[in-house]
Amino acid sequence: MSLISVRDLSVTLGHSRILHDINLTLDPGEIVTLVGPNGSGKSTLVRAVIGAVQSTRGQIIRRPGLRIGYVPQKLHIDPTLPLTVMRFLNLPKRVSTVRAEQALAQAGVEAVARRQMADLSGGQLQRVLLARALLDEPELLILDEATQGLDQPGSAAFYQQIETVRSELGCGVLMVSHELHVVMAASDRVICLNGHVCCEGAPEHVASAPAYRALFGTGTQGALALYRHQHDHAHDDECEHDHAHEAAE
Ligand SMILES: Nc1ncnc2c1ncn2[C@@H]1O[C@H](COP(=O)(O)OP(=O)(O)OP(=O)(O)O)[C@@H](O)[C@H]1O
């Protein structure tokens, strides 16, 4: 059974229709990335998946008992507040030291357990947030712009860590990102969103789809090669239609 299955989802916020006719499934072990221009509804879709936003039509079916780990964009911490990484991982509920250390190791930052949160670099902080999301051994890991503020090598290293986590835990991963070339290459499947699903499939397929190119141009192909890895592309969805005109909407 899929981890999540989104069927004909529409979301209206205030008087604006933000998402319409969204269909999406995510299977165990899959890394799916949502890309799309600012305001295209990526965060709204993720928030609907975690149950923080109500749908106006359609449904979201979660596998019964599904454990979801969520990595936010950023965490604002008062720099004057003394808070070690270990204490942070014990908020809001206590975890064993062994489990916290395991999660830090899975996130690639085992050495920072006793450090102050305020002293961490941007990349270390994002990995600590990842560790926190891993504490409950999620079956689905959701990351919403989790590499914002990191430079490109930092982002690439973070996404490689996500791939490691996926292969160690076997969890599915749903990510939102603006860093098209880096994130797309780390994904099994990419969904290009602009209020609805414009096109989807393997990164190479989406990068060359007319709808994607209309939204983002053609500059990502070379960079994709940087982090290319082998996938079975046999089941890629074809881009059903050309929505190139929508870029002008
Ligand atoms: N509570 C709300 N009420 C009304 N409109 C909202 C609300 N929340 C979000 N929106 C609008 O929904 C649209 C989609 O927002 P969303 O944050 O999902 O897009 P996004 O693709 O994640 O954007 P970005 O890439 O800029 O983060 C935007 O136009 C936003 O202004």
UniProtKB/TrEMBL annotation:
Its EC number is 3.6.3.-. Signal peptide: none annotated. GO terms for molecular function: ATP binding; ATP hydrolysis activity. Keywords: ATP-binding, Cell membrane, Hydrolase, Ion transport, Membrane, Nucleotide-binding, Translocase, Transport, Zinc, Zinc transport. InterPro entries: AAA+_ATPase, ABC_transporter-like_ATP-bd, ABC_transporter-like_CS, Metal_Ion_Import_ABC, P-loop_NTPase. PANTHER family: METAL TRANSPORT SYSTEM ATP-BINDING PROTEIN TM_0124-RELATED, ZINC IMPORT ATP-BINDING PROTEIN ZNUC. This is Zinc import ATP-binding protein ZnuC. It comes from Pontivivens insulae.
